[in-house]
# Entry
Amino acid sequence: MSGVQRAVVMMAPVDQEPHLVDPARPLVLIDDEGLTRGDGVFETMHALDGEVYKFGAHYRRLCASARLAQLPVPSEQSCRVAIELGLSNAGAGGDAGLGAEHTIKLSISRGAPGGTPWAWLTVTPVGAATFAVRRSGVSAVLLQRGHDPAEDSGCAWLLPGAKTLSYAVNMAALRHARDLGADEAIFTTSTDRRVLEAATSSVICARTGHGERTLVTPEPSHGILPGTSQARIFAAARQDGWRIDYGPIYPADLLRADAVWLTSSVRLAVPVVRLDQQPLPHSGELTDLLTGYLVGH
Amino acid sequence: MSGVQRAVVMMAPVDQEPHLVDPARPLVLIDDEGLTRGDGVFETMHALDGEVYKFGAHYRRLCASARLAQLPVPSEQSCRVAIELGLSNAGAGGDAGLGAEHTIKLSISRGAPGGTPWAWLTVTPVGAATFAVRRSGVSAVLLQRGHDPAEDSGCAWLLPGAKTLSYAVNMAALRHARDLGADEAIFTTSTDRRVLEAATSSVICARTGHGERTLVTPEPSHGILPGTSQARIFAAARQDGWRIDYGPIYPADLLRADAVWLTSSVRLAVPVVRLDQQPLPHSGELTDLLTGYLVGH
# Structure
């Protein structure tokens, strides 16, 4: 595996001893239902200097996703062994001042028909593109989500809040945003244009005028994916004296906010600097503060 | 490949000469976005005595799905070569009286990041379970779809009507139906409980009382997948003197229909014999008639 930047650890079947595999070789059967049906769940985590912060929140969300999809989950201990094995075999973590950073993605697939679900873990050094976007921010467009996902929340078979491998629409929204010259897509409901979430991240905005210190995010229990980064920022911000608030947020709220971020586990707090081609205010100081809430000790 | 029932033909990259591969071996990279993002499209077709009927309708829908997902499509000629190659290397087709039957599934995946989209084709003899269900029918439950997919139809980034690899919700609905003791799930809108489609098939019902001969299906342009089998049945039935009608259909309409079917390319017209635990009337004669519309000459 020398010279290979990323490390892949196989955990198949899910309770088997984690072991390194060579990702340059095909590893997946062509009738695996992770591939043919997008039938699986995943979590993306972040390691800083070899430590996965908020592992507990990720593991709990993985278990919640898997429970909805009726998939088994590797034990917490097995995940920790796999993470350790992956980290010690991946290339050195990218470092832009916070420490050595790795992306850790843990996935569970249904497996082939008649076969067994399996899990795998990929560890990759965080790269320059991620560091750049944290500094320079992103442009975003608002795209209708077609329906209010709150309508799904009582229906377990619609996998509400589960982080599944079926991300075709999220990927299509990102391609559409890029076709429009933007970097990111922020979904709104089609009916009342309420802000939901971005394609692969949560939305937070800040109001800081006239001595106010308020962070706002859309209500996370209403069918959107509960963001582990958003939750961590809010917990730390509250302790630091911020008022925190859970929507509703409308596009006008984003346009008059003092800062807007997309938050996710690896990119951390990425400032939105343009929304539907209108410039948004942003503050390196506030971004550093939110980043500190995420990865600080 | 001797002794292997199914044949798999690789078409990677999509314009490469189709060639047989061994599906017992891993063929897919672990970071393929078909797997990690459900990012791809597919069609399931049916061959009878070596001939794929309604190939044109499948190829057009594949092209429509791929256009929405910004994926390339193998040429029609390349698909025909691959189908021929697969059919001549798969086990003998199952035969329950119609002729030798094979399932043909053609899929296109985004491929690995920075790589190339690729396509593959699987040919499998139709088996006893499919023949059994055509005769004995299925029990179904009505499950809310959470929203009216008609709301998606103007938004290309939501991939309305595209048949993507992101089927996690469809599979979860089938599991939920089975947990409830049924075989199949029929989706309804959450707001007005209008019937939409089943997890992997279209819904058709017949009214035949008092000399009436009417077939009804939910309006196929309103965000549900346009069924190639439903379309073929309707075209032939109209020529055969049936009145055809496009919804709306409500659960009460299914309960008072003279027959209800789930139609799809390989299972053909499967009678629904119980709906939410209530028996539905069904008629082997009508099922044979619809099957004839599908596969007859």
